[in-house]
Amino acid sequence: MQTVGIVAALALVVIAVFHVVWVVSPWPLATREELARNVVGRADGSLPLGFFVPASIGVAAALGFAAYLVSVQAGAVSSSLSEDLVRLGTWGCAAVLLGRGGWGLLESGLKLGNAPASYRRLDLICYSPLCLVLGGLIALVALR
C-alpha cells in the first residue's frame, strides 16, 4: 500500500506544481485565454486574476497538504499529527477527488453549464477520470 500512496502523492504534487505555474504562465498552453477555456472551462476565455491567482495558489497548497497526508497514511513519511486526523484528511481528499470526478463526468457528459466544448472533451477524457483514479487510490490508502 505504501507504493500506491507514494504514486498518488506524487501525482498530487505534480498537479499542485501545475497550479503554481499557472499563476505566472499559461504553460503548456500558449495564452491565458486558452488556459481559461481548456483548463478552467470559461467560455469567454477570461481569467479574473484577482480571483484566479489566489484560487490557484490555494488549490496548490491544498494539493500539497493532501499529498503529505496521503504519504503519512501510506507509511512513507512520519508525522506528529494524530492518526485519526491523518486518516480523516486522507478520506476527505479521496471524497473531494471522487466527487470532482463524478460531477465532472456528469456535468461535461450532459453538457450542463456553459463550458466550451474543448473543456468538456478534456474533462471527459482527462480531468474527471484522473480525479476518479486518484480518489480511488487515495481511498485504498485511507483503508490502510
Give a written overview of the molecule.
- The radius of gyration is 16 Å and the shape is globular.
- The mean pLDDT is 95.
- The protein has five helices and no strands.
- The longest helix is centred in the middle third of the chain and has 27 residues, at 83-109.
- The relative contact order is 0.17.
- With 144 residues, it is mostly helical.
Summarize the entry for a quick read.
With 144 residues, the chain is mainly alpha-helical. 76% of the residues lie in helices and 0% in strands. The longest helix has 27 residues, at 83-109.
Oligomer: single chain
Largest sheet: none
Which structural class best describes the helix and strand composition?
Answer: mainly alpha
Beta-strand content estimate:
under 5%
* Shape type: globular
The number of domains is 1
Write the layout of secondary structure elements.
Elements: H1 2-24, H2 32-40, H3 49-73, H4 83-109, H5 117-142
Features:
144 residues; mainly alpha; globular
